[in-house]
User: Fold this.
Amino acid sequence: MNRRKFLRISGVTIVVASVGTYLLSDKTNFLRSDFEDNSIERFSFQPGEKEILYLASLAPSGHNTQPWFVHYIEPYHWIIGNDKSKWLPAVDPSQRETVLSIGAFIQNLEFAANNYGYICTFNLLAATNQDEDLMEVRLHKSIGVPKYDTDKIRMRRTVRSGYLADALTKEDSAYLQSGETDFSHFIPHGSKEFKWLNEQTIEANRIQAYRNAAQKELSEWIRFSSREAKRHCDGLTTAGMELDGIAGWYLRNFYQQKNVMDNKFREHGIDKVKKQVSKSAGWLIITSKENSVAKLVETGKRLQRIFLKVRDRNIAIHPMSQILEEEETKTQVNATIGLNEEIQFILRLGYLKNYPDPVTLRRPVNLFVIT
Assistant:
């Protein structure tokens, strides 16, 4: 066989092998809409119960851990629990953020129950953020309960990128804070506080990226492959991290948890934060009077009410509370921003040209309800 013929055959072989490899690879991001619930029904729900609990589970949580479970006492009578296996001790050692997320879950549950004609009565059970049984809830059928548009819950999404450069208008700022003005504080684009939050958010992310415990914890919640995503139904998928196209394909097929500890991955994350904070319409800070369990639940509910408003105005919310998670940065926040209350959320705001559909996964109801 002459050299020219050999090279031609070799080239064809490489192309065929490459095409074959691609066809067998994890080609597309695994989205919420792709998920099929094949979980085993362990008991029969009463009308509306499963739908209400699923809608509740669409609440946001750090690293999408979904740190809740529901103890099914009897029909329409449940205990909402704090799932220790979903805690993030490296970035949330006091479980403050965990309880805030459960508060958002409770707000979704209440709105969803209203839509099905139920009112909710709640009884706080937890005295600390670590108590397993957090909130007792009973649903009561009632006439004339105002309906809530549950499409707002289904379509809520955290958006990290693609913000326009426009500053948030006074009208939209007032709209977002309507009903929440006592504990929400808008930081306008261009103000000195705005610039400080930009700088310190980058710094806090840099500190956190090189704090190995925090980075390892992050690695444990990234679901690089579609197979991992389907198996866990939680965590950070490539779609949830807004990594599409070639970048998403490469990570799904060639990255593992250990790669998250590489400096290249850390630096890429910091660079992404720099790009994100360079485009925002302003910051929204949500506070509470204190850090009791009751106030944290109330504040988580407040966050969710604001989150459910924004899509109507093409406004994105990106929680970026790393400043509060790092000792070097959190001590400066109150004095710099001029607030005496407990700061619970730091939210980056921005306008979007087109609002994307939600993509993050949720565990089926049968996997977080116990008897």
Q: What stands out?
A: The mean pLDDT is 93.
